[in-house]
Design goal:
This protein is mainly beta. It has no helices and 16 strands. It folds into 2 domains: 87 residues, Immunoglobulins (Immunoglobulin-like); 103 residues, Immunoglobulin-like (Sandwich), CATH 2.60.40.10. The strands form 4 sheets. Strands 9-16-15-11-12 form a 5-stranded mixed β-sheet, with no helix packed on it. Strands 4-3-6-7 form a 4-stranded antiparallel β-sheet, with no helix packed on it.
Length: 218
């Protein structure tokens, strides 16, 4: 007796979700179907529609070969419904379970991390030596960054103290205080704060300047 295996369309993709969204985009992610229908999966079709419209529109003109897709040019604060279909040589699967997404920036509370190893939150150096206090600030919206020396906000760099901040992405920035040649009056508590509408985070470092820099005898 011969056994014949009949190929057919695959089953639906699974675990359909979004991993990131902005004011105009959403990144979709899914898992392949459990059953490919006896024929390899050759791609995926993603469809979308606004909540108040009856028909789905195809998002990708060409088959998506990956199991994720960035969907662009979406209307901010609108609700969209997405679904994905798997495709093999026989045909298309039934749509996945629908995914409803409001298009807006994700929000993440601030975090602040010092990028220097210190013991007991204290940096001790000899007078005349340099000091660097680097930190990383993350959050969405990108937190407002503020440095303080004691209770005084450091508004701008000076000849003695340089402050530099570099924005790396919409969620991440690196910032640093640099003192080229420390003096006794630099002894103080330095605090880096990151704040957005979800809250505030901070880290503090005690800086202690001791002794005087002495010249080496030749």
């Amino acid at each position: 007796m011969q056994i014949y295996y009949v190929s057919g369309p695959p089953t639906s993709p699974e675990r359909f979700m979004y991993t990131e969204r902005t004011k105009s985009t959403v990144t979709l992610d899914w898992k392949p179907p459990r059953n490919d229908g006896g024929s390899p999966i050759i791609g995926y079709i993603i469809e979308k529609k606004k909540q108040d419209t009856p028909e789905f529109d195809r998002v990708n003109k060409q088959l998506c070969r990956a199991t994720n897709l960035l969907v662009e040019n979406l209307a901010e604060l609108h609700m969209y419904e997405f679904r994905v279909k798997a495709v093999n040589e026989i045909g298309e699967s039934e749509p996945s379970l629908p995914l409803n997404v409001v298009i807006q920036d994700d929000e993440v509370p601030p975090t602040v991390k010092l990028l220097v190893k210190i013991k007991r939150n204290t940096i001790s150096v000899k007078a005349g030596e340099p000091i660097d206090i680097p930190a990383e600030v993350e959050g969405l919206p990108l937190p407002k960054i503020e440095w303080k020396k004691g209770e005084t906000v450091i508004g701008a760099s000076t000849d003695q103290l340089k402050m530099h901040t570099e924005i790396l992405s919409r969620t991440n920035a690196k910032t640093k205080i640099h003192i080229a040649a420390s003096v006794r009056k630099d002894t103080q508590l330095y605090t880096i704060t990151g704040s957005n509408r979800l809250g505030t985070a901070f880290q503090s470092v005690n800086v202690v300047i001791f002794g005087k820099k002495t010249k080496r005898l030749k």
